[in-house]
Amino acid sequence: MHIYSRLFAFSRYQRSLLAVTFIVIFLVAMMGVMAIGYLNIRSELRGQIFTEIGNFDQLEQNLDATFSVLEANRTLEPCSPEFLSWLRRIAFFPDGVHELIYAENDRILCSVTGGVMETPILLGPPDIADADSRTRIWLDRDLGLIGFPGLTGSFQQRGNYILVVPTPETMFTPPEWIGYQLVAIGENGKWWHRDGKKDAYQRYLDGGAQTFSLKHRAFFNVVCDTSQTLCLVTDTPLTSALAGRLPILALALVLALMVAGVLTFALKRRLEVFWSFSSRLRHQLAADAVMCLYQPILSLRTNTISGVEVLARWRDVDGTMVFPDRFLPVIEEHGLTRPFTEAVVQRAFADLSALPCGPARMRVNFNIFPRDFEAGWLELVLHEFLAVPERFEVVVELVETEEIGVAATREVIAQLRNLGIKTFIDDFGVGYSSINYLAGLAADGVKIDRSFAMAPTDSLMDNMLTSAIEMIHKTGQEMVVEGIETAGRLAELRDNHMVDHIQGYHFCRPLELKALAAFMTGYNDAAPAVPARHIAALI
Description:
This protein is α+β, with helices and mostly antiparallel strands and 539 residues long. The protein has helices spanning 3-9, 11-71, 81-91, 200-206, 238-244, 246-274, 277-283, 324-333, 337-352, 375-381, 383-386, 406-419, 435-440, 450-453, 460-475, 487-496, 513-526, 532-538, and strands spanning 99-104, 107-111, 115-122, 128-129, 135-142, 152-158, 161-166, 179-185, 191-196, 212-213, 218-224, 230-237, 290-299, 304-315, 321-322, 362-368, 392-398, 421-428, 445-448, 478-481, 501-502.
């Protein structure tokens, strides 16, 4: 059977499965709540970051607008009084610009504040330049060179014009346990610290530029301005994130426990319903799950094995054998008597047809539920046995689990007799069995319930056995006595000369197919012949 069936079907496996399920659900729920918390923090941070980056983008737009105005001048002579006056007028409206400069070949020639330089100021190679060198940036230069001693700022050039902007500072105020850094990024991955924590961006790069770095056990978030020049990086160590969210973690723990408990309980209820014994039986009711045992029937006339009674067992999904007293009520309750009988007959034919042919036909007895006692259906179910009458004689035993109509049943018995199927009244003397059935059904045979033969000597049941044998004998029907468990009882029935067949543990227990074949061969070879006087008495 499949391992998953064993895991789901039995409580000894379910306990371990449910424990593992609880742990898995708890961990998943915990991670889910933590992920929601992290996404909430990340959303809040990104909101602040985008606001901050938006300020840088606004400054960039102001610079673009100023450059556009400056580059529109084509008439004034550079650094002339008219030119400088024009620059001063422009310097009043751009927001975030400290100074306007005119330069040629990386040399500053004049500015709004300093006027015309006595000696041109050489800037040198830029720190950042775009692909076509149209825009170039010098970072953190001393503004004392252009008349602002003690200040630093950045120069941004486009064409012959340079705009001076202060070193950027952020208004970003994350929680204390979250580090951040503003960086300027140039060609070939080179970068410059602008504000905040000095190693956040480097830690981000060292961690593989991933949102979460296993190396640093930290979460990173990077947002850049439109020009991809200024980027704001947040660095959130996992331990700091956990410590900073202890109330949320406590709530997450409680929620995860509740979710895991509820879902595990729901799974447990589902397993109890779906993999209950009743459900397992209904899902596994097929010939490969049905096992047949065969109890030999001894003919007291010939002292040979005349046939077998087919006794069904059901193999559960873990391979254990289940007895009829447990599964038959479920089969009757759910209306599965016919599928069950079909599976039993199919299994029995596969087994018994594999036995070597004997000198005489083997009688095969099947127990039939009263509700299924219908000639047409039984003919279809038993057709494989009926197709080889030289090998098998079929007997159906009417299991009296419910009351039956005498007239209708007698008609079915007659129809079955015409088909070559004999009918025996099973468990005579208990349940619904009565003298009325014995006389009214006109069955082919009667099986006396085992409780009579197993009763102590001289008990009421023991005395009733003698009376039952005499009564059945007078009807002329075949008689089988079940429950023979002692040599004394067997000898008593032999000497009685009225009993045709016996079954019981003293003679043989129910056997699997291989054991049955060995027993039949050994018994028939070793059994002594019945004396002629006994045969005459039985006749």
